[in-house]
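#onboarding

Welcome to the new folks! Below is a worked example of what a typical request in this channel looks like: someone posts a single protein sequence, and someone else replies with the predicted structure as tokens. Don't worry about understanding the tokens yet, we'll cover that in week two.

Example request:
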Amino acid sequence: MLNRKTMRTSETSPILLQTRQHFEILDGLRGVAAVAVVIFHFMELITPDYHDNFIAHAYFAVDFFFCLSGFVMAYAYDERMQRMGVLSFLKRRLIRLHPLVVIGSVIGLLAFVFDPFSNLYQKFSDQIIPLFVTSCLMIPYPLVKERYFNLFHLNPPTWSLFWEYLSNILYALVLIKISNKILWLLTAIAAFALAFEAHRSTFLGVGFGGDNVMGGGYRMFYSFLAGLLVYRSQWIIKSRLGFVSMSLLLLASFLIPFAKAVNWLVDPLVVIFYLPLLVALGAGATHHLAYQKICRFLGDISYPLYMTHYPFIWIVLSYMEVKKPSTSHLVVVMIVGVILLTLFAYGIMVVLDMPLRKYLTSRLKRQSVQI
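Example response:
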């Protein structure tokens, strides 16, 4: 395992390259999880009964994202926060995350209004502006009960970004300062809250809707803290596992058969123990140059894909309601859709997201120099 001293000295030594290579596997896993989320959302339409959904537990991807976020946050900012300052940190996080929040909202608005198979938007024509503004500002606004009462109808995955922002604020103001003993205590409390939510809701695929919003808070609270704990306790497990092996281990959690009778127990066990273990293993896994470009691509595409795909899922649902296609036809739609949405996300990243972030980052640097 790596210790804190090694991490600090790596900032000015070749060891940094080795550490980054290991963490590139985590980037690759984030991309695998994002693709799994897209497949999961298609499968929710094809087989609404989770018992028939081969990837029914892909909602664990969100818990994995939260845990990975906590780990990366501690790695990237624990040693820098004091000299950086809270305000500068929050600006950096806004630049990293918010352009795609707005871009996803615009895509969601266009898909809602110009959906060729549905006129649902007419029912909410007087709410279009509030829907769009709250989506851009990440203010929960559950309105469309016909579509699962999502907190952010125009772009439903924004619900997890809402909690990501709160976790970042909590990190900058409180978690950066606490000792490991307090962190252990908070993580234990969060684990109990998570288990309570799993028992109450019978599973952990919650947090997206107005009727289960607090479930998302419990999921973020535990997994983000667990990620911090993995890094600060230096649970970086060196092994010969590579990207392919780690991807299979992650996918194994998504492929757990859905069984309502035991999900209340299985789900918290996976989130509390297995996913943090994967982060620890991924951080110490063996990096192979052959997979370097794949890991980087998947890491780069993960967030754009996550934040741009769902408006098109709504269109597919409208198509299903009107055309009543066969299951085999929908499987083809899913396969083609995943490929096209990945390419679309890549285009959005290159044409809009990266230039916007580059521009905003340069402005932030100029402001810092002026100050």
